[in-house]
Structures are given as structure tokens and as C-alpha cells.
Amino acid sequence: MAMKLRPEGILLAVAGALAIAMPVLLLPGEAGRAPRAAPVPAPIGAGTMPALARVYERPLFGAAEPAEAPADAPRLVGIVGRLNVDAVALVKASDGATRTLGIGESVDGWSLASLAIDAAFFTRGSERVRVPLPIEPGGGDAAPSETGP
């Protein structure tokens, strides 16, 4: 009985032969020799690392706010209302009068830019100042003391 060779069978036989022969072709010439180690590159110098204290001193986002407000900035007496809704700042002007300021209103050349839970932010030109709420030395908020009857 004569066997008829089909093209699919020939292709399958060639693919099998290549699959067996390829690993042998990829082996190095001398089978017992160990491969050479690649040369180790010289380490890259990192230079001098900054002191850790300097990293903690710099501001995380943008420029740091100044430690104290200028002498001519309004003094914050209190904040009344709900922040981002209807809050107003109670400030003492340079003439000693206490005024209520909403966001965008001005006193003594300083404009109230925003309010936080513990401070008010005023601007004058390109200058931005954070004026904190006053705090008593004992740790509590500065509040008028009540005298008993």
C-alpha cells in the first residue's frame, strides 16, 4: 500500500525537527566550559546627601508662611459662623475699633482673603499673611473672664 504524503504532514515533521534541533544549535561550542561573567560596572556616586534636618525644615508645598504677622496687620479677635458658608472674622483695627470682615472686605489696607479654623489670611498687594487666633498661655482660648455675682 502506497502512502500518500500530505503537505500538512511534511510541515509538521519539519517543525518537530526544528524544535528538537534548536536547543542543540543554541548551546555554546564547548559544553563543559562555564559561561564568562559579565564585567561589573563601577558604582555610580550619589555625591553628598543632604542632612536629614534640612529635608524636614523645607516646606512641603510651596513657600512657607512667615512665622509672625507684620506689626501693621489687623489683630484677629475671633471667627464667627460656618467656614466656607457664612463665616466672618472679628478683627481689631489700628485705631482700636473691632470690626467684622467678610471674605474680600478690607481694613487698614489689608484684605481678608480666607478663613481657617484657627487663623485668618490677609493680603496686601503681593504680600500674604496668616494671622492666628490668640491663645492664652495656659493653653485655652483667650476668652473674657467672668466674675461671679
Query: H/E series, N to C?
Result: HHEEEEEEE
Order of strands across the main sheet = 4-5-6-7
The largest sheet, given as strand count, sense and whether it forms a barrel, is: 4 strands, antiparallel
Separation of termini?
A: 129 Å
Helix content percent band? 10-25%
**DSSP helical segment count:** 2
Spans of at least 5 consecutive residues with low confidence: 142-149
Summary of the model, kept short:
This protein is of the alpha+beta class and 149 residues long. The protein contains two helices and seven strands. β6 (119-124) and β7 (127-132) form a beta hairpin.
Care to describe what's here?
With 149 residues, the protein is of the alpha+beta class. The protein has a domain at 75-132. It has helices spanning 7-26, 52-57, and strands spanning 75-80, 88-92, 98-101, 106-107, 110-115, 119-124, 127-132. A four-stranded antiparallel beta sheet has the order 4-5-6-7, with no helix packed on it. A hairpin with a 2-residue loop joins strand 4 (106-107) and strand 5. It starts with 6 loop residues before the first helix and ends in a 17-residue tail after the last strand.
